[in-house]
Amino acid sequence: MKCRTYLVLFSLFAANLVDQPAPEVTIEQGILSGKVSGDGSFFEYIGIPYASTSIDTRFKAPGPPPSWNGVLKAVDEIHFCPQSTSIGVLGTEDCLKINVYVPAIRRKPLPVMVYIHGGAFLIGGGGKFINGPDFIVKKDVILVTFNYRLGALGFLCLRIKEAPGNAGLKDQIAALRWVKKNIAAFGGDPENITLFGESAGATSVSALLASNLIDGLINRAIVQSGSSVSNWAINRDPIWTASLLAKSLGYSTEDPLELYEIFSRMSYKELTLAKTRKPLTMYFDTQLIHLPCVEKSIPGEESVINDLPYNLLAKKSKSVPVIYGTNSREGLFLISGDTEESLDERNGRYLFASDLRFQTEHKAIVEADKVQKFYFGNDKISMKNLMNMSEFYTHLYFEIPSIFESEILTEKSGAVVYNYYFDYSGGRNFMKKRSGFTKESGACHADELFYLFNSMILPFKITKQDNKLIDVMTTLWTNFAKFGNPTPENYDGLVKWIPSTKEQINFLYINEDLKMGPIPNPKAYRLWKNIYEKYRIKSVK
Which is the catalytic residue, given 11, 52, 54, 199? Predict the structure, then answer.
């Protein structure tokens, strides 16, 4: 009897060391098998090819997904699109893989949530390293994550047929089309798909909302700390930035075909490692080189963005319901590497980006002086007022553009829009800790992710309060996916989240307690609203 008991216990222990197969799924490409999660609560189908890319489709829309004979074991977790890391280039060019996480017990077609990862269009991936599915899937939804091409491979924009631009966004659209076509086979509802993303992923969601290519592919969207109307979201001079990259490799040309020849001859590793810097100008532009662009109309090529997203959104007559939000201390991660020298470089220059145009330099100087005085008074920018610089970044790059985009949708398309302000500081505020500002209040850029995803990046201890916040966040997000309303009628335990209107933007303040309130920083909002209404560039170079 004792020997039999030991045998049973050993069998249970051994079972936890070996992946248990999940039910097979048949899609158009072939038959898939996945694995059961460690706790048995959901099924994982990982690394499924949703499209194809190679040197032949480099810089262009991806090709169709491959088919296979037999059963594809969708259990391989190590998939990245090429990116430069401290240990060299990580990932391969054939990287367009998608992951589907399905609750083990389900009775009807489930809502689907598709997540686009962030990472400045340079780094990141859709895997469980950061985007662990456990918290979300346990709320009875299917979670889908995926990779898309990054850096020059995803965002070289030469506006020619060989490199029209936005290959990474076209990967995202290919992933959404794959989900629409195949998710029913996993038990998902193809008529109930919510697209969400954070940072560059949120900016991607915003850009796709502006495009007409995802009409009918999604039913709702969540935009976390990103906006396609922000100054850093669009490469406004893509040929010039491509020429800077070529110059760093020893070439001098601004001819699109010559640039294409240079980059197409390089291996994906060489191209991924290539780096350059923009010259410092009077404007406060980011150093990001590889970004979405406004594409030229090219016969036979599908364009994602054919005008500035601001213009496209303003022309929208209808929109899916959207949640927009930002974190209270977004800018902390941007000042973590600043020095007295780097801050001093900003003195005497404009404190706004080149998405503004002024009739005279005098007007630009007058407006720049208003911004300088608002954030720094009569002091120079220095390490003494570093937190003022963080506040400036928070407003200009994230908070204010998110409000602007909310206003566009409520005013122009009458969309249902919910706004939030995430201010919680707990044990899982990873980015704030990583940036070196643990003792600061509030939430840094990307801190909210770790209350939505069970990240493998660190073995976080989950306190009672953190666990409560995880439950609140995942409930709000999945309720929105299920019902189009994060706090539906008769849903106890949550403050009623009131949507915004064209008359008033309403915010849900997310902290240890939830409360509704007005725009969080009204003086900063009025400052930037006045500037952008007068000087925003609305034409494409």
Answer: 199
